Amino acid sequence: MAINKPAANSGYERIVLASAMASRLLLLFLIIFWRALLSPYDTSASLNPTCLIDPSSSPLAEQPALFPAIGSAIESSIVWDGVYFVRIAQCGYEYEKSYAFLPLLPLCISLLSRTVLSPLVPVIGHRAVLGLSGYVINNIAFVLAARYLFRLSLIILKDAEAAMRASILFCFNPASIFYSSLYTESLYSLFSFGGLYHLMSGRNSVSALWLALSGCARSNGVLNAGYICFLTMHWAYDALCLKKCVLRTLQVLITGAFHCLCIFGPFVVFQAYGYYNICSGRLPDELRPWCKARVPLLYNFVQSHYWGVGFLRYFQFKQLPNFLLASPILSLASFSIAHYAKSKPKLLLSVGFQAAAEDRNSAAMLYFPERASRSNIPQPAVAYSSRIQGGESRLLDRILLIFQ
């Protein structure tokens, strides 16, 4: 009897979604269990002075909550970076060091707390609702990120079972706590995986939008422009050197540059926003040091001045326990890169411009689609992509097998 591949792939996707939700429930249980046994190391949850910009949003101006114990339990879980995200959602960017935290998560928290969860404000209190909004957003974003990782892995690996295993490992990864806490990892993963999935599916403009949103969540989202730069580089080379078409080359370069600007845009605009709030309209002797720089970059100054973060500054002897803690994942990543480099040295060292004979067919799917036959494409991946996108997978032919 013939196997229905799209149906089988849907079954794998349901397993991934179930695993993602199960991992969040398990993590929630572990958080509650350990917090009941141990006192929190960080005690910043109680830090919540009156808002400087909008005093009316301060908890002091609110009516007493109907169930203060529940609200207090939620507020006590707002620690570490979560204090800043909730504070920004509640009061805006009041302090210079607040600008180390990009606005996507605070904006989402503020929106959800003012709409869907607003009826809970009289029940558990405003700040508790802000914290709860962050938890809801991040856990939903994590489940969706796992789904997009599965779909992306299916296109790249061309093996539904392997894609499922990779996605389940993501659901139970060692840093899983950050994806369910008031951090930006979940939103960043969702828009990064989603952006790459759309890029691999031929939706370049949609991909640029998603990757730009990843840059609204975390500053390193701007590095996602590298994926578009990589494809643009090869398409331009193909148009100029192989097809001798200057007009097509200019079109590829302009489109790629525009998409990259879209990805860099949110971070640049946010820096301009910080400059306007902190530096604009002040006397020279009132300006902060970074305001006088030739390129006034607030983010780098805040990270260095308040947290001592900078290039290679983390490599200190006192951080040795943290490196030991990360050594299993670092070792796995290093061995994987070494294995790939040993198996496909020419493809790796030439950034795809040169390839061994056995790699040429796979590389052609990305760089020279007109030379590749559709019969070479693994049918499960094509059928699945067509099913979930309504047939919009023509450019998938160009990029399958690049990582094979």
From TrEMBL:
Protein name from the UniProt record: GPI mannosyltransferase 2
Taxonomic superkingdom: Eukaryota
EC number: 2.4.1.-
InterPro entries, per database record: PIG-V/Gpi18
Bilayer topology annotation: Multi-pass membrane protein
Function field: Mannosyltransferase involved in glycosylphosphatidylinositol-anchor biosynthesis.
Localization annotation: Endoplasmic reticulum membrane
GO biological process: GPI anchor biosynthetic process
A Pfam cross-reference name: Mannosyl_trans2
Chain's gene name: LOC111024082
TM segment ranges: 15-37, 65-86, 98-117, 129-150, 162-182, 220-237, 249-276
Entry GO MF terms: alpha-1,6-mannosyltransferase activity; GPI mannosyltransferase activity
Keyword annotations: Endoplasmic reticulum, Glycosyltransferase, GPI-anchor biosynthesis, Membrane, Transferase, Transmembrane, Transmembrane helix
Annotated pathway: Glycolipid biosynthesis; glycosylphosphatidylinositol-anchor biosynthesis
GO cellular component, one term: mannosyltransferase complex
Lineage: Eukaryota, Viridiplantae, Streptophyta, Embryophyta, Tracheophyta
Keyword Transmembrane helix carried by entry: yes
Family of the protein in this entry: Belongs to the PIGV family.
